[in-house]
Amino acid sequence: MKQQTPKGRDIPLPPRNPKGGRPTQEVAAQLGAHILDVALEEFINRGADGASMESIAASANVSKRTLYSRFGSKTELLRAAVEHGLCRHLRPIASTIPKGLLRDRLLFVGRKMLDLSLKREVIGLEALILWLLDHESSPTAAPTLGASEGIRIVRSILESSEWNHSMDEDALQFFARHIFDTLVMVPRHLILVRREFPNTPTAKRAYLTQALDILLWKRETT
């Protein structure tokens, strides 16, 4: 059985135990992922204020009681859905970084994360993150468009290179953040807001290549 979201994307429901009773841990985890997939679609399509627990429960084919028992409130469900969406996109990048020169590895993750940041769902996630930042009592707890995970991925690459031996902890973290901003956040702004170059593979690769030449001073660093 599939449940159709407002945008029309089919999200399959996890199988249920035909004998009834409590679901297994695997089925419960699948149901949790299903709820978060549907909730994220609802929040992106309707906005944080427009989506309701009623509409999410109906789209996910579960009861409101199930949503509240799992997440407690709409805000907590929103937070969980955003984090679920970010992890779903970023984990494949972290697990497929090729071996080779530092420059090539940074070019790979920069291109992947820039492409990701320009996708409809991630742009929708940004609006939800800003809503969380505006409504959280502890703003630092809100996710920031995957920036922390993106910076962590860049840092893991630096830590496996000679840069790890020439920088202290604070400098390494600063440099990882600087690389992430230069390869992802800046060109994203140039494409979406200032429209200084098109969202094409050729234009993005040219920008990232030039940016890395400057960042690494054209050194063939391992």
Summary of the model, kept short:
This protein has helices spanning 25-50, 53-60, 64-71, 74-94, 102-117, 120-135, 147-159, 169-192, 201-215, and strands at residues 2-4, 10-12. With 222 residues, the chain is mostly helical.
Summarize model confidence as the mean pLDDT.
84
What strand order characterises the main sheet? 1-2
Q: Bin the strand percentage.
A: under 5%
CATH topology type of the largest domain: Tetracycline Repressor, domain 2
Helix content: 55-70%
CATH architecture of the largest domain: Orthogonal Bundle
What is the SS-derived class?
mainly alpha
Question: How large is the count of helical segments?
Answer: 9
Please trace the helix and strand order, writing H or E for each element. EEHHHHHHHHH
Molecular structure report:
- The chain is mainly alpha-helical.
- The chain has two domains: 2-72, Homeodomain-like (Arc Repressor Mutant, subunit A); 88-215, Tetracycline Repressor, domain 2 (Orthogonal Bundle).
- Helix content is 66%, strand content 3%.
- It is built from nine helices and two strands.
- It has a two-stranded antiparallel sheet.
- β1 (2-4) and β2 form a beta hairpin.
- The model is unreliable at 1-9 and 139-143 (pLDDT under 50).
Descriptive labels:
222 residues; mainly alpha; Arc Repressor Mutant, subunit A; Tetracycline Repressor, domain 2; two-stranded antiparallel ribbon; 9 helices; 2 strands; elongated; disordered N terminus
